[in-house]
TrEMBL record:
GO terms, biological process: acetyl-CoA biosynthetic process from acetate
Native source organism of the sequence: Lupinus albus (White lupine)
EC number assigned by the record: 6.2.1.1
Domain Acetyl-coenzyme A synthetase N-terminal: 1-58
Protein name per the record: Acetyl-coenzyme A synthetase
Domain AMP-binding enzyme C-terminal: residue ranges: 515-593
Keyword DNA-binding in annotation: no
Homology family: Belongs to the ATP-dependent AMP-binding enzyme family.
């Protein structure tokens, strides 16, 4: 299949696309691409002229195929015992009601709608409702600050904002509507006014009477949505019409609005989901990502729904109210495919095996990971302890920009190597280039680029095609540049080494922060590590390592030396950290990404330049780190 996907991409993808519903088939050209800035404007088009609708393909097509009574979503609330579910038919009814409402307030094809919701069922429902009427959803992760939300509203000028009054995550209550209100005020001051703010009442977190309200603009979801008909005709769109905008951070302050279109994204997310997870109709699938990120778009919602899968949507934190909650959920729903992030694996690993081993987990069949390189020790723990040494791990490498998996194992298809994302997915031709953009052969290490277009690729950065070309296509002419470093071993396996912006150059040696981190966490007492570069008089850059220890282990001079020796042993003397900084906690975004920007400032002792720490899941860890800096 892979061979055909490379030699005959048109034939390969048209056969797969034919399994979906198209109101009208695409034109003669299945794809049209230019990845070479020297030849003109960068362009990717797939199935242009094909008329379809992704919501129809997720719901109506599956219902017509007999899946109407199958559970589409199992919803698990923050508090154990609070749950709900929707069949495919029930989901379509609710999606249609929201779609009818949106049409009624004047939302039309190609209009943007901002969704600022937590992981309640209304989040996927609203995304599908937008898709049903051809509107462009822009989901903003409900952990973003007022400033971030304001910036995004100003950028995409939505017709409406959809939120809920508040939500409980873990033991904390987050007042989402207050954030939206402030962002709407802020946008108005910048000339972008929002006329409609649809608010879901979430009484578990905050009662209606206690919610601040602006008559005329604010509307309770529960007051309007149930009044609308449960059927809504689909707006047929071109394969190249936009489906969604998702903001992601770039190297500059301004977020990038990654734009995905309909047809190619549909075919690609469905196919990657099916093969990389070895999906079977009887599977119960749980992806721990929030719909506010690309993983939630492609692999909580679209990929699984297009396959008619039963999906778990979990509202809470993976370790609330106790460290074993994730495994309770696995056992409760008999989850067969479990997709999560290395950061979660490491934090659960740190909590101790006993929280895992007291659960059954017999239902698990495939495990999967995304978001950052998974270090071999976390990989082994995930494999041995969570998966009882019987479930293959799909370490899926991809990005917001790629829409779906690019380099990933197919479970059971070839031998695994802990920490390697293995081989490219169908149709993907990764290349590793040196600084001059020369393709490297065989065993090598360099910058990861992609040679050709694939259906799920983003089409532009919203309103800034030039930045799209400059960021991704100019660094290495002729290729899409991922921004990641990668090593290919003698067997052709790919090892992602982290963002190249996180590469440290020590005495001329190029060292991936991820490599040093992986070495540190291979020490049995080290739970997590984050490495940044600091200015060094002699070496140019020195290695500065923040380390979190396994619960209960005290930090000592002896341990510091052991950690350094571990790195020397695993990578070489040149990679030995210059400084070990004990970190009881690391600054992370609410999606679990370590904020290296802040760590770099702490490492450099530029404490007055820490910047915005409001998006951190726990801003206090920053003060704690500063206090421990010279201890
Ligand atoms: C990193 C998340 C190693 C990588 C889907 C990429 C990974 C960035 C992996 C994109 C993986 C993601 N192994 N690194 N399996 N998956 N990354 O846009 O650096 O939030 O460039 O998309 O995450 O992050 P994004």
């Amino acid at each position: 299949m892979f061979k055909r996907s490379i030699e005959d991409p048109a034939g390969f993808w048209s056969d797969i696309a034919s399994e979906f519903y198209w109101k009208q088939r695409w034109g003669d050209k299945i794809y049209d691409e230019n990845f070479d800035v020297r030849k003109g404007k960068i362009k990717t088009e797939w199935f242009k002229g094909g008329i379809t609708n992704i919501c129809y393909n997720c719901l109506d097509r599956n219902i017509e195929a007999g899946l109407g009574d199958k559970i589409a979503i199992y919803w698990e609330g923050n508090e154990p015992g609070l749950d709900d579910s929707l069949t495919y038919s029930q989901l379509r009814d609710q999606v249609s009601q929201v779609a009818n409402y949106l049409k009624d307030i004047g939302v039309k094809k190609a209009d943007a709608v901002i969704i600022y919701l937590p992981m309640i069922m209304e989040l996927p429902i609203t995304m599908l409702a937008c898709a049903r009427i051809g509107a462009v959803h822009s989901v903003i992760f409900a952990g973003f600050s007022v400033e971030s939300l304001t910036q995004r509203i100003i950028d995409c000028k939505p017709k409406a904002v959809i939120t809920c009054n508040a939500v409980k995550r873990g033991s904390k209550t987050i007042y989402l509507k207050d954030i939206v209100d402030a962002a709407i005020d802020g946008s108005a001051q910048n000339g972008v006014s929002i006329d409609v703010s649809l608010v879901y009442e979430n009484p578990v977190a905050l009662k209606r009477v206690d919610t601040k309200w602006k008559e005329g603009r604010d509307i309770w979801w529960q007051d309007v949505i149930p009044r609308y008909p449960t059927t809504c005709p689909v707006e047929w769109v071109d394969a190249e019409d936009p489906l969604f905008l998702l903001y992601t951070s770039g190297s500059t302050g301004k977020p990038k609005g990654v734009l995905h279109t309909t047809g190619g994204y549909m075919v690609y997310t469905a196919t990657t989901f099916k093969y990389a997870f070895d999906y079977k109709p009887s599977d119960i699938y749980w992806c721990t990502a929030d719909c506010g990120w690309i993983t939630g778009h492609s692999y909580v919602l679209y990929g699984p729904m297009l396959n008619g899968a039963s999906v778990i949507v979990y509202e809470g934190a993976p370790n609330y109210p106790h460290a074993g909650r994730s495994w309770d959920i696995v056992d409760k729903y008999k989850v067969t495919i479990f997709y999560t992030a290395p950061t979660l694996v490491r934090s659960l690993m740190r909590d101790g095996d006993e929280h895992v081993t007291r659960s059954s987990r017999k239902s698990l069949r495939v495990l999967a990971s995304v978001g950052e390189p998974i270090n071999p020790s976390a990989w082994r723990w995930f494999y041995n302890v969570v998966g009882d040494s019987r479930c293959p791990i799909s370490d899926t490498w991809w990005q917001t920009e790629t829409g779906g998996f690019m380099i990933t194992p197919l479970p059971g298809a070839w031998p695994q190597k802990p920490g390697s994302a293995t081989f490219p997915f169908f149709g993907v031709q990764p290349v590793i280039v040196d600084e001059k953009g020369v393709e490297l052969e065989g065993e090598c290490s360099g910058y990861l680029c992609i040679k050709n277009s694939w259906p799920g690729a983003f089409r532009t950065l919203y309103g800034d095609h030039e930045r799209y070309e400059t960021t991704y296509f100019k660094p290495f002419a002729g290729y899409y540049f991922s921004g990641d470093g990668c090593r290919r071993d003698k067997d052709g396996y790919h090892w992602l080494t982290g963002r190249v912006d996180d590469v440290i150059n020590v005495s001329g040696h190029r060292i991936g922060t991820a490599e040093v981190e992986s070495a540190l966490v291979s020490h049995s007492k080290c739970a997590e590590a984050a490495v940044v570069g600091v200015e060094h008089e002699v070496k140019g850059q020195g290695i500065y390592a923040f380390v979190t220890l396994v619960d209960g282990v005290p930090y000592s001079e002896e341990l510091r030396k052991e950690l350094i020796v571990t790195v020397r042993k695993q990578i070489g003397a040149f990679a030995a950290p210059d400084k070990i900084h004990w970190a009881p906690g690391l600054p992370k975004t609410r999606s679990g990404k370590i904020m290296r920007r802040i760590l770099r400032k702490i490492a450099a002792r530029q404490l007055d330049e820490l910047g915005d720490t409001s998006t951190l899941s726990d801003p206090n860890v920053v003060n704690q780190l500063i206090e421990l800096a010279d201890s």
